[in-house]
Amino acid sequence: MKSDRIFGLDCLRALAIGLVIFSHCTFLLYPNDVNVVLNIFRLMGAVGVDLFFVLSGYLIGGILLKMMNNDDINWSKLLRFWKRRWFRTLPNYFLILCVNIVLAFLIGLKLPKDTFLYGLFLQNFAWEHPNFFTEAWSLSIEEYAYIFLPLLLFLMSIIIKWNGEKLFFLTSLVTIVLLTLLKIHYYFNADVLNYHDWSSSFRKVVVYRMDSIYYGFLAVYFITVYKSFINRYKSILFVSGLVIFIMLHALIYIFKMSPETHLWFYSFLYLQVLCMSLLLLFPLFLDIKGKGIYKEVIEFVSTRSYAIYLVNYSLLLLNLQLFIDVGALGMLVKAFLVLFFLSATIFVSNLIYVYFEKPILKFRDQKIPR
């Protein structure tokens, strides 16, 4: 049976989770240090999450664009779309949420007052994410992004009888513009003292970040509609994306731009330009072909990337830091600890994928076919 996996997208998933994981390793190797090199590594972890966002937008946008092109978007198809997404995202999420809650009780950690909000992905809807199961902030953003714009596209297809591609593009673009109004409100009302304040109150909040996923919708539109042009200049687009990415962060370093001094930049430019620079890499990646052990490794990491993302930080890293004074260890011991962290992450993630996630996806494909 021929796999429908796109190897280039598997490479992007593996890259994204790799950036996240290796940034977390720095908290074991250099827990108390702060310098430019460490900041870059830790920044790459945040970039990894942004890569996940635009990749999700590209994939989900592609499904919806195909439906609209075929004039095949209706309430039944939209419900099927949501059910398939929920079978993909919710089981792992609730499994790890429950494990974190049980561990908190066993260890004696205090749960957030509004822990029930995690059940509805509301824990960071328009406010800061609680200091519990902290990686869940990005999942809330994705879940609401999957609901809001797909529903809007469905409603617009009923109201406006335009060409499917045109309606998809304009609705996505207008949605991004309208979400900017919320950023304007943030800019004039936020009290930001440092990067952490901005990250907590803006970067990790649903209403301010859904547009990051919708940039992926715009990307799939251009790659689909202007396929020949994109293919012809994919190398130039790739280099342009790298240059923009490097220049964006060089500007921050050279001019010492931080959220407390340049909030306008971090509210209206930084994340938006970052997402667009990442999307410029996609056309070249889409043409990458894999074979042999290289392909197997990439596909292994890619298929387990969701489980890896969920277990590596709050479930493993934070508990290691809770029971071990990492700062007091020698570098050799820290290196072994990092090796244990990586091994445990892969081991636990593989168990979840093979014995939990994969059977659920198989059940989904049987009961809710594409």
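That was protein one. Protein two is written in the same sequence-then-structure order:
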Amino acid sequence: MGGRIVALDVLRGVAILGTFGTNVWAFTHPQGVTGFLTGFGSGSGDAVTALLQMITNGKFLGLLSIMFGIGLAIQHRSAERRGRRWPGWYLWRSALLLFEGLLHYVLVFEFDVLMFYAVVSVLVAYLVGRSGRVQVGWMVAMGAVNLAVVGLITVALLTGSTTTGDPGFVLTTDSWWGGVQARVEHFAVFRAEGFLVLPLSGLLFLAGARLFKAGALENSARGARIQRRLAVWGLGVGVPLNVATTLAGASWFAVDRYVCAPLVAFGLLGGITLLVNRLRAEAGPVRRGVTAVGRSALSCYVGQNVIASALCYQWGLGLAQRWGHLGAWFTGAVWLAVAVLLMVGASWWMRRFERGPVEAVWDWAYRAPQRRSVAV
């Protein structure tokens, strides 16, 4: 299979913009991140808020995890074709991703996922070339650990031993530097979820890699069969379960986010790929914009959080305290404004450059030690 995979960039773009659909609630809450943590998943708020949070909660983050696994599989295939040792320099990619994620966490956003993706990518890099039996064994083990963690959290919520809600401190948005200090001070609190879902992330990474090798993104009869199965099972089973756990209340939050949402993510993967591969008309501005976001995914992931911070926080324009009382309507408006800005900006940039700005710096850093080793 040669050439650029059309659906791949669209899927990445949807995952990036969809992930912001969850993160945007943290930026637009009048009380900032601590207000968001107190209310998110607790069942509080109006019907529109509950519906929008149900739609975005975990699905697109799951899709993003699957896409990272697919990207890892593409790197592995490229290394095999060129006869290069694996994982080899891929581990340097993981180290750079970890550093980028750490910078993003400290300087910009409390809920960065890149740090954890970097850690998971190291494990999966050693598994992606192993036999199918080994990979399935690891997937089963990681799935079992994830279910055990979710089960313990759910029991604790049902029995009242713990609650979703108040993190125990107040994080103001008056000062950018104050936010940096708070993220360093409360590292364990803000990073806790990432550690809890490491098994789930590993499972999704491996699943993405295996789906890619099976031809799940191909525009072919084989690819279409896989895509239809993913869409039918992922959406047909995942969505009803997601609705049920949402209606069941806050005690089922972990099941909703860490079990049902990943099922929907597989359905999105199949449905979006099937739709893109069937389109015959020339791409319109929306599809071109989403594709451009997918081609500059790292830049847009970081950029959307920088833009939202500047728009909503008190050290910026302070829109959250002025308009946050409008709830879901304000949040939706911010998401739409940032999404449009990203699509327009990414389209403009990718027409002129091969890589997004963050990707260009990242690629330079990735190749720098290789150039030195060749020179020596």
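The longest helix spans residues 132-159. Keep this in mind for the problem set.
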